[in-house]
Amino acid sequence: MSNGQVSTPQEQAFVDWLKSNGATVNPSIGLTQFEGMGRGAVALQDIQPDTLLFSLPRSILLTTSTSSLSSQVPLSTLTGWTPLILSLMYEYLRTSKWKPYFDLLPTSFDSLMFWSDPELEQLKGSAVLDKVGKEEAELAYAEELLPFVEEYASVLGNKEDYTLDLFHRCGSWILSRSFHVESADEDEDKPKRKHDGDDENSDSDDEEEEEREDVADVAMVPMADLLNARFGSDNARLFYEPSTLNMMSTASIPAGAQIFNTYADPPNSDLLRRYGHVDEENGADLVEIGLGLVVELVGGPQGSDLSEDEQSTRAEWLLELGIDDTFVLDKTLELPEELISTIRTLLLDQADFEKVQRKDMPPKPRLDPISAKWAVAILDRRMEEYETSIEEDETLLAQTDLIPRRRMAITVRLGEKRVLREARRQVVGAFPPDAEEEGKSKENSKADKKRKAGADKGSSSREGKKFKKSKP
């Protein structure tokens, strides 16, 4: 890059470092600051599809194996993301060959790990609050990383240098900027942007996927991680060859436009948790509904009136069958099939529940007027977990003097509530309230026929109770 392609001495030093390590950068791209998104890549002239934007040798990647620390201490004895976090801390502190890269990385963050409790309170109702993991992060720091640093002080140096602030900073770099880069002999077309895994070693929405992912395959990729992402705006994609990683344009990019890498389109809650920004219009927003809420509402006194033991039995059985403990409503606005099956399972009387237990198969995910009524009740209860209404949030967002973090919190919760509202409209549209009464009538008619058949056979009233209808 020429001086026209960069705007700061740090950027120029970074570009010089890239070139000295065998990277090539197309002169048609540059680096600049974008409001609300930080540093990113810009097209300095019109770029055609399938243009090589830059090429990086694998030797420039920062991983647990390329860090010199891996040959000096047993990193494999550390768990989760701690080996990679420690590798970054070590290379940062010893002013290693990656210094020009570190100098370009952010030192302040708006991701949720760095929000105060009052700021996080503005996200009340959003499931993202369960994924921040600050306590877990600080536990891993105190109980795993610091003792390891003490044990290998001859290599790692002064324990006081390995501060909690630096731990969080390196963890946030990994969370927001790292890629999953398979080894050169893998038969994949491209490395995948790491979508989960963070400095907190905490539970996340894709915990099982994280557990399968080998931290040795997670890499910091200089230059590639400078490209931002925005919903539906990607125009570049990272591919790899045995010895290089190549960023290619995937669409025409006019001069002056930002270059966006191809990542999955995450909801605003995830953008805020990982990257510290949101998209004002994000078609990927989603809402999570916990199994506990569904069991409590449908299996409670106003529903099928199951005892606590009965509720637990049915919930545990569903989990054993592979039904998740969280149901996700996304932009399709369709109720998850597992949610419908769960509602119908909770509405079964004991005899019918025992039948499906023997078959080891929950009821079919077929929505009917009665289960639709309970689906609406679940959506309403979930909406009540937010402290403000859609209208109140829309009024707040219209204000021009909101501080950035408050605006982002409102944007997240508003997007989730809109998903709930539209999903509710869809269910009510398919099953208007009067359809429930018709459904009840049909259920009562079926029950009457069963009771009559039992009476014709001389059955007792006790036998008739087997067909007791679940309370609506």
Structure description:
Residues 27-264 form the SET domain. The chain is α+β, with helices and mostly antiparallel strands and 472 residues long. It folds into 2 domains: 62-220, no CATH class; 287-467, Rubisco LSMT, substrate-binding domain (set domain protein methyltransferase, domain 2), CATH 3.90.1420.10. The protein has 18 helices and 12 strands. A 4-stranded antiparallel sheet has the order 1-4-9-8, covered by helices on one side. The protein has a 3-stranded antiparallel sheet with strand order 2-3-10, with no helix packed on it. It has a 3-stranded antiparallel sheet with strand order 6-5-7, with no helix packed on it. The longest helix has 27 residues, at 404-430. Mean pLDDT is 87; it is low at 192-212 and 446-472.
